[in-house]
Design a protein that fits this description.
Blueprint: H1 2-16, E1 36-42, H2 45-50, H3 54-61, E2 64-70, H4 72-85, E3 91-94, H5 96-106, H6 113-117, H7 133-138, E4 140-141, E5 144-145, E6 148-160, H8 161-166, H9 175-185, E7 189-190, E8 193-194, H10 204-217, H11 234-250, H12 260-268, E9 274-278, H13 282-285, E10 297-300, E11 313-320, H14 326-339, H15 342-350, H16 358-362, H17 364-369, H18 373-385, H19 397-412, H20 417-431
Parallel strand pairs: 1-2, 1-3
Antiparallel strand pairs: 3-11, 4-5, 6-9, 6-10, 6-11, 7-8
Helix pairs in contact: 10-11, 10-19, 11-19, 19-20
Length: 434
């Protein structure tokens, strides 16, 4: 009798609009039971974190998951070969800024919007709004969501906090102050070492992923409103020149040979006052077994240029193969949803994988173990304001990065930057595949 009364009351409340019919809906995690899916993965810290937990998902859903992980270069080649051949791959890791336009045009990316909007497929608590908006945008093409972030990155200005405090130097907030600070430290002898003011990547294409933050902060861009190269604009030329001058005048010798490994090593040896590079390198700087500056480093967002502070953001995402069968695509979505839920994103963050969810960074569990709060605060700030287009918006990304990298090299070598940038713009317009 009580049950009948309860049912009548609930039905009445639904009719009155007090409750919606979907309020009682929940995802049936067994709906794809018996399905087998295969994901191709990069050997990445997120893969290392999630792989031992896959059995939990399999037990919960009855879906059999095969994860195949390979070193990055091998992974990229295998993924491309299999997608071209139409092999049985249901999902894969992708770095959207590197490959999404190519893969979208090739028809290899399944939009996820319908899955996300379907309460029978997606738990309300999964909550796409919990992800930083910059990464949602970064993993979308033509307004379609084609990936869910599993690893979030940006770049930070890292500096010798101990020396800044001792010599009463303020952390640079503008590009002008960055140059002045680099000049102040350059050539100073500290602890028996002759310091360089700053170290940056300068090795052609490798430098573009860090220079791009300077490009945006100076008001430049890869392309203009017509889709043509914007490197000939005064703003883009200014970004090339500033970056080149900074490394040539206040950086180490042989700046055009600096990749991330050489640059971070120099900073870890205590030979540079500042470095601008990926935030994930905190793990290197703070490792007392490898770094002479562990415990002496401070972290800040990119200094403001004429267009303000505009760091780049990049990420790895999980995507679904558009050529998989509908049933396996649905099962792949259930796996991606589970792998990127709040619990797993927090667990990954605690394991050292920068998460794309704000809730993970704001959790008590993470905050209680956070030994570098300035790194956290400035990383989160960069996630909020970051520009997700960190690579040129073209299909042939590597080729255009090479063209861009040559201008950076010319700037470091003190050549005519305006002429080099305009030549690169002409070459880009001929070479860009869109």
């Amino acid at each position: 009798m009580r049950r009948r009364v309860l049912c009548v009351v609930v039905a009445g409340l639904v009719c009155m609009g007090v409750f919606s019919a979907t309020a009682f809906a929940a995802v049936n995690w067994k709906q794809s039971q018996g399905t087998e899916i295969r994901f191709l993965m990069n050997k990445h810290p997120f893969t290392t974190y999630i792989e031992p937990k896959v059995s939990e998902f399999e037990k919960m859903t009855g879906i059999k998951v095969t994860l195949e992980a390979f070193p990055e270069d091998q992974f990229r080649n295998k993924r491309l070969i299999e997608l071209n051949a139409g092999g049985k791959m249901d999902g894969y890791m992708i770095m959207p800024g590197q490959d999404e336009l190519h893969y979208w045009k090739a028809g290899w990316l399944q939009p996820m919007d319908a899955y996300i909007a379907d309460p029978a497929l997606t738990e309300a608590d999964w909550d796409i709004k919990d992800f930083f908006p910059s990464f949602i945008k970064a993993s979308s093409v033509e307004g379609k969501q084609i990936g869910i972030v599993i690893n979030a990155e940006t770049s930070l200005l890292s500096y010798r906090k101990d020396l800044f405090t001792k010599l009463k130097v303020k952390v640079p907030q503008t590009m002008k102050e960055l140059e002045e600070t680099a000049k102040f430290f350059h050539g100073k002898e500290i602890d028996g070492k002759k310091m360089v003011g700053i170290t940056l990547r300068g090795k052609k294409a490798a430098a573009t992923s860090q220079w791009v933050g300077f490009l945006y902060s100076f008001g430049g861009s890869w392309t203009n409103a017509q889709g043509n190269s914007n490197f000939g604009s005064p703003q883009s030329i200014a970004a090339f020149k500033f970056y080149g001058d900074l490394l040539r005048n206040y950086g180490p010798e042989g700046g055009t040979m600096l990749h991330w490994a050489e640059s971070t090593s120099l900073f870890m040896e205590g030979k540079a006052a500042m470095i601008y590079d990926a935030n994930v390198f905190k793990a290197l700087y703070e490792n007392p077994k490898e770094s002479k500056v562990a415990g002496k480093v401070g972290y800040a967002t990119i200094p403001a240029g004429p267009a303000g502070k505009v760091p780049h953001v990049s990420n790895w995402s999980l995507s679904i193969n558009r050529n998989s069968t509908p049933e396996r695509q649905k099962a792949a979505w259930l796996f991606i949803q589970w792998a990127t839920n709040k619990s797993n994103c927090l667990g990954a963050l605690l394991a050292g994988v920068p998460a794309g969810r704000a809730s993970a960074w704001n959790s008590k569990e993470f905050k209680s173990k956070d030994a570098h709060q300035d790194w956290t605060a400035n990383t989160m700030k960069s996630f909020e304001i970051g520009q997700p287009q960190w690579n040129p918006p073209v299909i042939n990304v590597p080729e255009i990065r090479d063209i861009t990298g040559q201008v950076i090299v010319d700037a470091i070598e003190g050549k005519d930057v305006a002429a080099s940038a305009k030549k690169a713009a002409e070459l880009m317009d001929k070479k860009m595949e869109r």
